[in-house]
Design goal:
Number of strands: 4
Order of helices and strands: EHHEEHEHHHHHHH
Largest sheet: 4 strands, antiparallel
CATH superfamily of the largest domain: Transposase IS200-like
Shape: globular
Helix content: 40-55%
CATH topology of the largest domain: Alpha-Beta Plaits
Length: about 240
Amino acid sequence: MRKDAYTVDSIIHVTKRGTRGMDIVRDDADRRRFVKSLFFLNDVHSDPHWHESTAETGMFERPAHWPEQEPLVRVLAWTLLSNHFHLLLQEIREGGTAKFMQKLGGSMSMCFNLKYKEKGSIFQSAYHARAVTEDAHIQYLMFYILIKNVLEMYPGGLAKAYLRFDDAWEWTKRYHFSSLPGFISGEHSPIVDMADGLIADMLGQRDSFKEEARELLSAHMSSHGKEFQGLMLESW
């Protein structure tokens, strides 16, 4: 486990990977549960049976008997892949990130094991986290989490996405297990907090983000992100 020291207001890149590279989600039901987890587990209130408690409610509808939500962290960006996920978080209360990740990892392992009759943690370690302080690094991480990771799942992978970028960009809008489509469309997200314009400052305006993403992808396809290797928490 690798974690930097961080304090309230720190922006943190977090990743968590399946043990031995195994998938942590196997179907869209698992993926939807992960999305719900990002909303319902980001709360001081804990319900160990939250999935059952929310089974009859809307996707992001809190049960009436729960207290008002008190977020543990501010979620700035996220992407789920088959065997790991990336989050960009802001610490808003002391220990909030650690508590949120404990709840998220524990819940995912429990639900996975119940469904697939497995045992133990599905993750190779607790989580990896790196605090980010420079604006250029934050902007790169937004690109890395939202663009590079999503485009890796494009048919033919990142190289094909680079060659067919316009088509690949349209494809990303249909990948619903990332916060990217919501940013592109401007649709309100119950998970991502865009209230003060911080995300827009990181990503730029929506109408120019596509071309900025194209340029960043071109630059980092050639460099493999060497300048930012420590921020990615994994090899390119």
